[in-house]
Design a protein that fits this description.
The chain is an alpha/beta fold. The protein has a domain at about 5-90 and about 155-235: P-loop containing nucleotide triphosphate hydrolases (Rossmann fold). It is built from 10 helices and 10 strands. It is globular. The two termini are about 35 Å apart. The relative contact order is 0.18. It binds adenosine-5'-triphosphate. Adenosine-5'-triphosphate binds near residues 20 and 45. One of its GO terms (molecular function) is branched-chain amino acid transmembrane transporter activity. It holds the Pfam family ABC_tran. InterPro entries: AAA+_ATPase, ABC_transporter-like_ATP-bd, ABC_transporter-like_CS, BCAA_Transport_ATP-bd_LivF, P-loop_NTPase. This is ABC transporter ATP-binding protein.
Length: about 240
């Protein structure tokens, strides 16, 4: 098997005394989309936050490219190429589309690389180029999601941690967002995807983990999980 680019080993995370993760193991092979599924409060967001350093793992280890990143601060983790796109998009009001994108390049020191990345983002998302001088918060929900993804791309991610990218979007835009996620993956970015739309997530993912109460309850190839009767019953609303 290919060496995982990201390896989460026996990770336990807490909010004060509340234990949110109870010994999570996740392996992300390079070039894959790995879905993280589970009901509300299962620990999906906490898993992403722990990987990106926003929440500290109190037990266990996280390795990126063979390097232990468990204790690194979030900006160092982002600089190494593990980039978190949190739930809710977090587009800053009062800043233009372009300025919102520039915020994503704080980890990039070389101005030439920043310019090149911005040109790439505008090529991938022409609507952002058209609206580059408009206030980012005035974009539609789908456009704001593109801006959030574009801002993450400014870091030059090797692994994207996407938290519910389709949240709050109309059905057509949900499908479009999943298509964008797939295209980013095909262009070479490895993706760990938390997604409430389990059916679509399993369609684009290679492998999936199902979390329950802070533990890995189930895992397998996405195509196999999509046909697993218990998963279908629990998460696909069948
Ligand atoms: P959802 O789909 O609702 O976002 P989730 O699977 O992402 O759920 P988490 O947000 O990771 O779940 O939450 C895991 C557990 O940690 C839950 O019991 C939740 O109540 C708790 N929790 C999350 N954030 C905090 C916080 N800031 N303070 C205290 N407890 C928290």
């Amino acid at each position: 098997m290919t060496e995982p680019v990201l390896r989460v080993e026996q990770v336990e995370s807490f909010y004060g005394k509340i234990q949110a993760l109870r010994g999570i193991d996740i392996e992300v092979a390079p070039g894959q989309i790995i879905a993280v599924l589970g009901s509300n409060g299962a620990g999906k967001t906490t898993t992403l936050k722990t990987i990106s350093g926003l929440v500290r793992a109190q037990v266990g280890r996280i390795h990126f490219d063979g390097e232990d990143i468990t204790r690194l601060p979030p900006h160092e983790i982002a600089r190494k190429g593990v980039v978190h796109v949190p739930e809710g998009r977090h587009i800053l009001k009062g800043l233009s589309v372009q300025e919102n994108l520039e915020l994503g390049s704080f980890t990039v020191r070389d101005p030439a690389v920043r310019r090149e990345r911005m040109a790439d983002v505008f090529e991938r998302f022409p609507i952002l180029s058209e609206r580059r001088h408009q206030d980012g918060s005035l974009l539609s929900g789908g456009e704001q999601q593109m801006l959030a993804l574009g801002r993450a791309l400014m870091h030059g991610p090797r692994v994207l941690l996407l938290d519910e990218p389709s949240m709050g979007l109309a059905p057509k835009l949900v499908t479009q967002t999943m298509r964008i996620v797939k295209q980013l993956n095909e262009a070479g970015t490895t993706i760990l995807l938390v997604e409430q739309n389990v059916r679509l997530a399993l369609k684009i993912a290679h492998y999936a983990y199902v979390l329950e109460n802070g533990e890995i309850h189930n895992q397998g190839k996405a195509s196999a999980l999509a046909e697993d009767e218990s998963i279908v019953q629990a998460y696909l609303g069948a």
